[in-house]
Amino acid sequence: MNLKKYQKNVKRPPHSIWRNPIHFIACGFGFGTFPWFPGTIGTLVAVPLAMTLSRTSLWFYILACVVFFGVGVYCCGITNRDFGTDDHPAAVIDEIATFPIVMIAVPMTWYYLLIGFLLFRFFDIVKPGPIRWVDKNVHNGFGVMLDDLLAALCTFCILQIILVTTRFFG
Predict the structure, then answer these.
(1) Is residue 10 part of a domain?
(2) What CA–CA distances, in Å, run from 160 to 61, 147, 164?
(3) Which residues of the chain register pLDDT less than 70?
(4) What are the pLDDT digits (tens) for 69-84?
């Protein structure tokens, strides 16, 4: 991929992300401003968040994911409206808020994190089946978050199958 061509095609976020706390949160605390692959950067930011949550109780982990999702819906809705887009590339709170769902009840080892990360990015980028439909037809902050939630749930299911299979045959 030609990074210079990619960089020219990416919409730069307005400078308001540094002044407006809702824009700042939606843009992943500034990480969404990276000129290349902001969604991947946002997912990388979520890895230590998932690792930290894994040290809490399962109930707290799930509650935190629900709260992050709600905050993401709110912040993405306002930010994308203010930016005049449906889903600005800099608004990466959707990746940050939904990647921890991938790792619920999954051992925090480098290989499970890597598999989870790669599968999540695959589903988020390729958007197979219903994920693509949601991406095209469900709008506002909820739509921005929902396609990533579906990508996270698909990845979660695959990781759970891998876990069960390795325990059964392992």
Answers:
(1) no
(2) 17, 20, 6
(3) 1-11, 170
(4) 999 999 999 999 999 9
